[in-house]
Amino acid sequence: MNIGISEKNRKEICKRLAVLLANEYVLYTKTLNYHWNVEGRQFHDFHAFFKEQYEQLFPIIDDVAERIRSLGIKSISTLHDFLKHAALKEDTKYELTDLAMIKNLLQDHEAIIEQLREDQQIVMDLGDQGTNNFLVGLMEIHEKRAWMLRAHLAK
C-alpha cells in the first residue's frame, strides 16, 4: 500500500481508531438501551430523542470501521473486541431516570470529544491529514449531540 503513510504509522493510527470505534459502539448500545428502557411522564419525547441519537451514531460506527479498512488494516468487529478496546463502559442499570440517562450520554459524548481532540494531533504527527479531517468532522457531530443533551439538563 503506497498512500504516503508508512505501515508503522498506519498501524498506530488504526490502533487509535479501534478505540474510537469501540467507544462509538458502546455509546450506540447505551443509547439504544435508554431508548428501549426510558420511562416517565415524558416517555414519548425521550424515546424519540434517544432514537434520533442512536440513528445518528450508527453511520459513525460504519465510517470509523471503513476508515480503518481504507488504511489497509482489518477492523475490530466483535462485541468482545469492542468491550476490550473501549474506554467507555456499558450501563447495566435498568432503573435510571430519564435525566440520569441524559447525564450518562453527555459524559460519554464529552469523553469521545476529548479523545478526538487528542487523536487529531497524534494522527497529524503521524502524517495523516485525511484521518485528521475525518476526526474533526466526527468531533463536530459529537459536540452538537452534547449540546442537545446539555439543553435537556438546563434549569
Features:
Ferritin; mainly alpha
Layout of helices and strands:
Elements: H1 7-37, H2 43-70, H3 79-85, H4 98-125, H5 129-153
Helix pairs in contact: 1-2, 1-3, 1-4, 4-5
Number of distinct beta strands: 0
Question: What is the strand content?
Answer: under 5%
| Straight-line N-to-C gap | 54 Å
**CATH topology tier name:** Ferritin
CATH superfamily: Ferritin, core subunit, four-helix bundle
Structural commentary:
The chain is mainly α and 155 residues long. It has one domain (7-153): Up-down Bundle (Ferritin). The chain is 77% helix and 0% strand. The chain is built from 5 helices and no strands. It has helices at 7-37, 43-70, 79-85, 98-125, 129-153. The longest helix has 31 residues, at 7-37. The radius of gyration is 16 Å and the shape is elongated. The model has no long low-confidence stretch (mean pLDDT 94).
